[in-house]
Specification:
Length: 354
Amino acid sequence: MKNVIITGISGQDGSYMVDYLIENTNLNIFGAVRRLSKPNYFNFQQHLNNKRFNLVTLDLSDSQSIDNVVREVKPDYFINFAAQSFVGASWQIPEQTFDVDAVGVIRCLEAIRRHAPKCRFYNAGSSEEFGDVKYCPQDEKHPLSPRSPYGAAKASARHIVKVYRESYNLFAIQGYLFNHESPRRGEEFVTRKITLGIRKILKAIKNKEPFAPIELGNLDAKRDWSHALDFVDGVWKMINQESPKEFVLSSNETHTVREFINVAFKYANLDASWHGNGLSEELSVHNHLIEEHDLKSSVLVRINPQFFRPAEVDILLGDSTLARAKLGWQPKYSFTDLVKEMVESDMANECQNT
Ligand code: GDR
């Protein structure tokens, strides 16, 4: 039986990849987590008793831990979803971001080169590598021009993956993944911050309590959002090609943060409208609802300059034509399906791990 190492399994992509491979393959899965004083098994607890699932400790900032696991497991596949993945934080912790997201990839490649040179390696790449984009939509030929320490680290990782691929003849690739979300998305990312904020507001309304608005930064940023479930399928197809080619995975649509908010509030059945401009822009509940529900507050969303970034990627719009044609990859979720699922999941799960 073949072995796969997946890192980052407590997070969104790693945990969905475990689900996907348990369901669709007979691989032995070595799910890697970093040692934490308070372990976080929430997203993969459903597999803990599965004979095909093995939990291993591995830290991208520690080459010994990677070397040990790769030497023992001799993987056929290594899928690296571990990262400091929050762009906003990468200005506060630039060295740690670079160490984990770029140098950590060298550590994985070195271990593979020494102990499992036939192993297929996938590293999570990002549309953030395109940065201040030169043309729309962005395809595989778009130049790398990152705007954040995170984007710079991922672009460096891309170069080192190519260097190892060519120097040692490794099957090593880094896809270009545009934004991808789900009910398992981390709380600090804008989509989940919005859907969790809606949950809090609805709860307050139900309990006839006042509520605090959701505070956000740049509402004009445009992103190409997909469902993470579609992307783990794309990554699995990418790592199983005959030759190591790197593809864009994207929905091929772009929406502003403001549009995401509008659709999310629609699915929460809260009639609302925007007022004001710039830093004073606010989303408020419609007057008829204030009277009907005897609301104690009315502002749902407000701008907080704290959430603006030192440098922003204004627009991302992917072109995944090649992945669709060459891998036969076809995403199943639309933008509205995604927003609906996230809103409904947070409304239903009042006592999740958040
Ligand atoms: P992003 O995701 O940086 O695109 O990276 P994020 O959800 O953090 O931001 C998307 C856009 O929303 C704007 N924004 C806010 N963002 C956050 N987090 N919080 C806010 O309050 C807020 N207000 C506005 C941001 O400025 C930005 O323009 C994600 C990550 O998953 C990366 O790891 C991945 O590589 C890329 O997607 C593709």
